[in-house]
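[Automated response] Your request has been received and processed.

Submitted sequence:
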Amino acid sequence: MSNKLNILFICNKSPWPPQEGGPIAMNNLIEGVMADGHNVKVLAINTNKYHTDPAEIPEHYKNQTNIELVYIDLGIKPIPAFLNLFTNKSYHIQRFISERFRNKLIEVLSKQHFDIVQIETLFMSPYIDTIREFSSASIVLRAHNIEHLIWKRVASITKNLFRKAYIKHLANTLEDYEKNILNKYDGILPISSKDEGFFKQESKKPVKTISFGVNTNKLISTSNTKSEHALFHIGSMNWIPNEEGIKWFLEEVWPKVITEVPNIKLYLAGREMPSWLKNLNRNNVIIVGEVPDAYVFIKSKTISIAPLFSGSGIRIKIIESMALGKAVISTTIGAEGINYADNENIMIADDVSSYVKAIIKLYNDVEFCDRIGENARKLIHKEHDNSKLIDKMVEFYQETR
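Generated structure:
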């Protein structure tokens, strides 16, 4: 173990409970550096969109992380959202600016010395100046995505012209902010090697990819429930790329699949199911909604679908599904950041016909399906072991000091 560090994590949402992509990614790093012997403090935003009851956070987690939450209402305000059209400021970023959060941050920095302040996601960047004023710590950005790229991709597939124009405005102002703020950091930790190129191009500061890591011991201890040979998707449905991908799949792919293999089933799990999905009446589509244990759910099925056409970074549910030995069918965009081999440890499908063919192949050839899943498990255990990634991250911290 390297010299013990005091690390402050500033998070755009609570890392506990780790039940969706962002919190899972944050929590894995937090638990990883604690396991490596470092001292951690967590200061996170609590929002109307992703709300955590502090009373439900386990006592051992509170004691280890000294976690504190500050509420910010991130709801879209129609008038400020409209007026933002006439400014060059990013509405995405402006929503995260809070005097209450700034005051709490000052209190935390005044009470304790930190060697590293890790800002989780671009959206917490407005607090860099406050950190500089009250701390000598190195400030590191953990970039879960290239944020503006997500919105550019969403705009490109949006059909409503007014909505398309507004999303383009959001993407452009966010891009300007993202590119201009990067050099205020001491280092940048992108989550995928594909994203690393962008950050190296736009920043003069050290950049190192630290991908999403899985706790291999936890995966091994997961229940060995017998898997139903069926399709599944798991992911938060209040994330636009997930909802749009599933909508495309149900409208374009599923009718053709069900014609070829009438007995096949599709299970859809995740938080914040929209009303159109809750009320869906499609052959052999089961709306599961939020599940108590994502790993147990993933292990209960055999074939994961990830029809993503926008987004950035790395898709955590794909990594977790592969780590648990599931055959994954993803688009090229969905599989970004994974060192995959098509038809060996994953199946890539970017259009309707290839998606249909991949599903039928995996469903009808169980031996092939099992082989894809086993190869996927080996790949993730080799390249995404959390303890190995933590060692690399701590080495990077030393470079920024």
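Summary generated for your ticket: Residues 278 and 287 are 7 Å apart (CA to CA). The longest strand covers residues 39-47.
If you did not submit this request, please reply to this message.
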